[in-house]
């Protein structure tokens, strides 16, 4: 894809994520195009419909997960970074998922995204298992579930410090559930 076409496509995804979060999934797509600074034709050349645009937003969120997991931070800090960065994406996903047309193609695409997310978290789970931070049965899918549980606690925190404090409290509870227990087998 040409650089200018990539820039316009990225602008559409950013604009859609913002507008869907602000006003809901059913906002007219012309408003998404206007916010992105492009015409309707550009929007429809890039995305066949509203659902394709929503799926592109989710794909970009998983790209962000890949970047965070690839970093060399300790397990707990990586979870904090994922949860803080993903809180907006999780809220947007919940908002869109309630209105997304549940046809077989969309459901298959959502399942593929879930599989991709679990795969993106697998390297983190492997490192955590190797370091003894989590039980041997914890994989990317279970880490994803734990992150969704913790991420669901956020409701527009007033400060980042307050968000990190609440997140760490929630992580203490969740990590106790996935941490290995000496002498206990699964």
UniProtKB/TrEMBL annotation:
DNA-binding region boundaries: 28-47
Signal peptide, first to last residue: none
Residue ranges annotated for the HTH tetR-type domain, each copy included: 6-65
Entry-linked Gene3D superfamilies: Tetracycline Repressor, domain 2
InterPro entries for this protein: Homeodomain-like_sf, HTH-type_TetR-like_transc_reg, HTH_TetR, Tet_transcr_reg_TetR-rel_C_sf
Keywords, alphabetical: DNA-binding, Transcription, Transcription regulation
Protein name: TetR/AcrR family transcriptional regulator
